[in-house]
Amino acid sequence: MSAEAKKKPGLAIWLPLILFAGFFALVIWGLVRPADREVASAFIGKPLPAFDLPPASDDRPGLSTMVFKAGKPRLLNVFASWCVPCAVESPQLAFLASKGVEIDGVAIRDRKPDVARFLAQNGNPFARIGKDDLSQVQLAIGSSGVPETFVVDGKGVIRYQHIGDIRAEDVPMILRKLEEAGQ
Amino acid sequence: MIAELGLAVLWMAAALAVLQLVAGVLALRPEGRQLAGLVRPVAVVQGALVAVAFAALVSLFLTTDLSVKLVAENSHSMKPFIFKLAGTWGNHEGSMLLWVTIMGVAGGFVALIEKRLPENTLIATLAGQAFVSLGFYAFLLLSSNPFERLAEPAPEGAGLNPLLQDIGLAFHPPTLYVGYVGLSIAFSFAIGALVTRDVGPAFARAMRPWVLGAWIFLTLGITAGSYWAYYTLGWGGWWFWDPVENASLMPWLAATALLHSCSVLASRNALKAWTVMLGVIAFSMSMVGTFLVRSGILTSVHAFAVDPERGSFILALLAVYIGGALTLFGLRASTVTEGARFSFVSREAALVLNNVMLCGILGIVLIGTLYPLLTEAMGVKVSVGPPYFNPVSAVFAIPMMLVMGVGPLLRWRQDSLEGKGAARITLPVGICALLSAAVLLGVVLFAHHIKLLPALGLAVAAGLAPASFLPLRGRNLRRTPLPTWGMVIGHFGIAVALFGMASESAFSTEKLAAMRPGDVQQVGPWTVKLDGIGPVAGPNWTALEATVAAGYESAAPVMLHPQARTFSNPPGNRTESALKTRWNGQLYAVLGEEGDDGRWQMRFWWKPFVPMIWYGGALIALGGLLALLGRVAADIRRLVATDKIAYRRMKQGR
């Protein structure tokens, strides 16, 4: 078996080196690639699915897809009163709201009194809050947990998905994403 | 003082490595012949000096000298002795020093005792070894000095990551390291033989003990790592095809192939270029493994070891050594003379098949490990898991194990499976094959729920276990050489481990239940009752501990205590599963979270014969140890005999 292979060495002998060169090129690329290691959402670039949620809070209207087609980019924040990181990110949301960013909320598997308590404690940056008791909207936009924040452009297309709470250092990035979505 | 001594000695060792390389290269030319005598002693002294440097670091850690940066960052005066010791290599700088120490000491040892190889090949080998060491010396001395002092001694050390304060984990990395570095000796031998174009049985015999030794350590390291992941991660699995696990598996696969092709070259002077090639590949895989772990290029559970800059350094070394070696191979392999021929039915052919299949699995694992990176380069992010690795590697593993049952019975060069003499093989192998077929038939008839792969695994294991003992048939057991015993036990270990793996996936019972104290659940043959849940505290953690009474069939219940631990500094959670091992399997209990209604999430697995996986691994390593002892004993006997002859000649004035 091996005797036959050795009769015509030719290219076969260089094969390991060629494979190694390929490996080397690949990992060099892997080392210099941008540090973004997050799995990009499959929903980016897709329009929001149609939904119409009842209000989750007495002083804010519910949320429907129509709102997102008004021509201005908005944030869609998926949260819940029972979620601790959601409370942690509320100062960042409040700051964004103070900058004139319109934020709509979707409360996941929540009760009205709990939402009211949560908003009373942490402030209410939301223009509208929809109540999603079965996580239907949450799943339809590719969100797997709370909190998550989506940048949606003026035509209702998802432009960016932020998984986990918005930290203070994320705020400039979110503002940039909103600006990009507005262009 | 000790730190300065260590650093000085390390510099001297590095300087000697330069001398060893330069003198070795010059000595291979006619005009530099007189330098030939220098290489061996320099290699020995270099090994001794680097050992002194390592001893210096160990003593700094044992005395917790907090004026040394590395000690202050990684140790603590109140740590138990064993973790102070393990702290020496439980960090980047120390582990690199351990790496060069093993390389230097092993190189010195080769220089001291290796007398079989032609002198030129040995000199080329030692020069190659010095060349590889130099890269790591440069790494240590230029960018990660372990002996660096702090301007102000620290008041107290920072301690070691609590997840690493586990007795198994204290010894798991150095075990793998010894294996990785042992392969560097095989690599140097391969380079030496390529340089002098002197690839023959003497080369294979000189290299074999090193490959065997490295392979034993790799086997133990992988087995221990697998058990650690099994009991500590709380997922009930024992192998996750994680990039870092793969990084330790790939050198093992290459070393296994090398081990077998070495024995062909040593006995039959065949497979010359192939053996050299495997020598290069085995060490490449060690370095690729180290690179993958350290660079963080792939996402993995071992993320605590990551540092991209160090990754780049290792990658540069990888390019120089492996790229260089493969270029040398390309230039020289065609001039390495053709080996002895053999027929299709012969032990060589079986071993070639074994090699091809092992390399096939190696390729599968390498591709699977790098695939996420490859597709990402093309713009898609994916992850690759067991659905790819298990069936695709089985395509290679199952034919390999079938041949494993027959191969050791075949004669070298040429054999026949027909005619009169063939009954010595076909009859016992036929019986083993019938056993396999019976198991497979039994599964098909009586246990439909078992999937294809575990069913095949059970069947192959049933045939392979008796078949692995066939080479002992008709032999005087007391006169059977140790390496033969080693092979038999190693192959039997494969069958045992395979049985454990197949049984785990075929017969495991899982039970997920929300339980209140007092609730009872049935898990396979076990009846488990949650007695209660209470808090417990450890040195640097607090935990909720469940008390579970588990009774096997009608036997009296035993108490299990699974915990959910919360570490304070650095903060983190870890589940501590509780295991109950019986001869026929293991009960595995995990405490989950408390639900809204006051019930607790409990997970139980009954895994019949799962410990066989690790018993099998231990048997494989034991087989390697026996083979190594046999080879080394034979070498010592031969050395003593040649010395005696030389002494007599000297006395007789000849």
Q: What is the strand and helix layout of this fold?
A:
The complex is a heterodimer of chains A (183) and B (654).
Chain A: H1 2-7, H2 15-32, E1 52-53, E2 63-64, E3 74-79, H3 84-88, H4 90-98, E4 103-108, H5 112-122, E5 126-132, H6 136-140, E6 148-152, E7 158-163, H7 171-182
Parallel strand pairs in A: 3-4, 4-5
Antiparallel strand pairs in A: 1-2, 3-6, 6-7
Chain B: H1 2-27, H2 36-62, H3 69-74, H4 81-87, H5 92-113, H6 119-143, H7 167-196, H8 201-233, H9 243-268, H10 272-295, H11 308-332, H12 347-377, H13 386-406, H14 423-446, H15 452-467, H16 482-507, E1 509-515, E2 520-523, E3 526-537, E4 541-552, E5 558-560, E6 563-567, E7 572-576, E8 578-582, E9 585-594, E10 600-608, H17 612-651
Antiparallel strand pairs in B: 1-10, 2-3, 3-4, 4-5, 4-6, 6-7, 8-9, 9-10
Helix fraction of chain B, binned, reads: 55-70%
- H and E order of chain B: HHHHHHHHHHHHHHHHEEEEEEEEEEH
The number of helices of chain A is 7
Strand content of chain B: 5-15%
Low-confidence stretches of chain B: 300-305
Q: Based on the coordinates given, report the CATH architecture of the largest domain in chain B.
A: Up-down Bundle
Note the quaternary state here: heterodimer
Task: Give the mean pLDDT of chain A.
Answer: 80
Bulk shape of chain A? elongated
Give the integer mean of the pLDDT values of chain B.
86
Q: Biggest interface, which chains?
A: A-B, 23 and 40 residues
Class by alpha and beta content of chain A: alpha/beta
Total strands of chain A: 7
Overall 3D form of chain B: globular
What CATH architecture of the largest domain in chain A would you give? 3-Layer(aba) Sandwich
Stretches of chain A where pLDDT is under 50 for at least 5 consecutive residues are: 1-7
Described by strand count, sense and barrel closure, the largest sheet of chain A is: 5 strands, mixed
CATH level 4 superfamily of the largest domain in chain A = Glutaredoxin
How many individual domains of chain B? 4
- CATH topology of the largest domain in chain A: the name is Glutaredoxin
What is the end-to-end distance of chain B?
53 Å
